[in-house]
TrEMBL record:
Pfam families: rve_3. This is Integrase catalytic domain-containing protein. PANTHER family: TRANSPOSASE INSF FOR INSERTION SEQUENCE IS3B-RELATED, TRANSPOSASE INSO FOR INSERTION SEQUENCE ELEMENT IS911B-RELATED. It comes from Gordonia paraffinivorans NBRC 108238. InterPro entries: Integrase_cat-core (IPR001584), RNaseH-like_sf (IPR012337), Transposase_IS3/IS150/IS904 (IPR050900). Residues 28-95 form the Integrase catalytic domain. SUPFAM superfamilies: Ribonuclease H-like (SSF53098). Transmembrane segments: none annotated.
Length: 123
């Protein structure tokens, strides 16, 4: 019995990697076993799936009727996530409330590291 050394899917992946190397391009994934480069994106995706996709309150019975409804659901989720969701990393307050509290006690006096030229914004 002959065994194929490489399955078709593996062969395509190998060829893809070779083509990337020929084009002097790099993949967007980290090294083997390294998930740190995508940790924040993976965390957000996990929250998105739990809080939007799998949440019966967000998802209509029977699912969304089309792409338009999915786009609206995603936009509503992002708005809620960015403005009203309680974030544990910032003391279980919504980002808008945290930012308002921060700027009420902090003022920007100067930007020495990256000064804005006096004539910036004029043509």
């Amino acid at each position: 019995m002959l065994h194929r050394l490489v399955e078709p899917g593996q062969y395509r992946a190998i060829r893809y990697t070779e083509r990337l190397a020929e084009a002097e391009a790099v993949t967007s994934v980290g090294s083997k076993g390294d998930s740190y480069d995508n940790a924040m994106a993976e965390a957000f995706n996990s929250l998105f799936k739990a809080e939007c996709i799998r949440n019966p309150v967000m998802r209509p019975r029977g699912g969304w009727a089309g792409v338009g409804e999915v786009e609206i659901a995603v936009a509503e989720y992002v708005e809620w996530f960015n403005h009203r969701r309680l974030h544990g990393e910032i003391g279980h307050v919504p980002p808008v409330e945290y930012e308002s509290a921060y700027w009420s006690t902090h003022t920007v006096t100067s930007y020495r590291e990256n000064p804005v030229p006096a004539n910036a914004g004029t043509n």
